[in-house]
Write a structure and sequence with these properties.
alpha/beta; Arc Repressor Mutant, subunit A; Nucleotidyltransferase, domain 5; 3 domains; elongated
Length: about 290
């Protein structure tokens, strides 16, 4: 009658054949169909821990070179909870600013967020075949500029943000706060941006009155048009009812609202204060950090 031996029993017999019966390790390994190193390992394990040491062990590696340290994983989760809108790329940027070394990869950060249920898994939309990315070849070729409202202060003041991004790099070239988006206030922010970063080749805006007077009842050159002409800048306008043409600046507005404005407005700010009779100037240009 044949009796099937367990793996641990076979290893024990192999060890006993070498230790007690004097068999050579090579002969035992040949009969069992294993390597000589395996037999040597069984003998060492038996001498160190007895029969129990011959049982199967986990094949999990003792160390993992690409595994995130527990302290770093906790820091990643803390950053994500403080800023729910930040993804792996932005979190990696923040870790770089904090001087973390070595830095984890973006995929490692994504898996960390996924393990702790801090990221919402969504099905990717298939890109349409006719999709084309519209982008200039290098920085300073084109700036997209616009005005965003909805910045409410505790005293009821409703501010506007004059924003601008570089079309190629997405770098924030303008983020100036103004009480009223008049032509002069917008141009002050535009002027400060050019003094700081240089003069672009082109500027793309919508057809708002602060940017152009080409479509008004009485066509005239407004201050923004004049600044573009005097600095050799080609002023490009979007087609009517085509907000996707300035899609980069609109996406920047979305990020600004999520990061700085969402759930941060006091209920006392619902009352809108009337603008002063004098209009501009009040305060402008508390500039946000570049690339914010």
């Amino acid at each position: 009658m044949l009796v099937e031996l367990s793996v641990m029993e076979q290893r024990y017999q192999a060890v006993m054949a070498v230790i007690q019966d004097g068999w050579k390790v090579t002969e035992v390994a040949y009969r069992l169909g294993v390597s000589r190193q395996s037999v040597h390992n069984w003998i060492a394990r038996y001498e160190a821990g007895g029969l129990a040491a011959l049982a199967d062990r986990s094949h999990k590696p003792a160390t993992c070179a690409h595994q995130i340290a527990p302290e770093l994983e906790a820091l990643i989760c803390e950053i994500r909870r403080e800023h729910p809108g930040w993804g792996p790329r932005r979190i990696l940027h923040e870790l770089t600013r904090k001087g973390i070394d070595p830095l984890p990869g973006r995929t490692s950060i994504y898996r960390c967020l996924k393990r702790h249920n801090l990221i919402e898994l969504r099905r990717r939309k298939k890109r349409r075949d006719e999709f084309r990315r519209w982008e200039r070849d290098r920085p300073m070729q084109l700036w997209q500029m616009d005005v965003m409202g909805g910045v409410l202060l505790d005293d009821g003041t409703d501010l506007k943000i004059v924003t601008g991004v570089d079309d190629h790099s997405r770098f924030c070239v303008a983020a100036g706060l103004v009480t009223r988006a008049t032509s002069r206030a917008v141009c002050e922010v535009f002027k400060a941006s050019m003094l700081r970063y240089g003069v672009p080749d082109e500027v793309l805006t919508d057809n708002g009155k602060v940017f152009t007077g080409r479509f008004g009842t009485h066509k005239a050159e407004v201050l923004f048009d004049r600044m573009c002409r005097e600095n050799g800048i080609s002023h490009r306008l979007t087609a009517p009812r085509s907000p996707t043409t300035t899609g980069k600046i609109e996406r920047f507005h979305q990020s600004v609202r999520k990061e700085f404005l969402a759930d941060r407005t006091s209920r006392r700010c619902r009352r809108r204060r009337k603008p002063s009779a004098r209009g501009w100037p009040t305060t402008t240009t508390r500039e946000a950090a570049p690339g914010a």
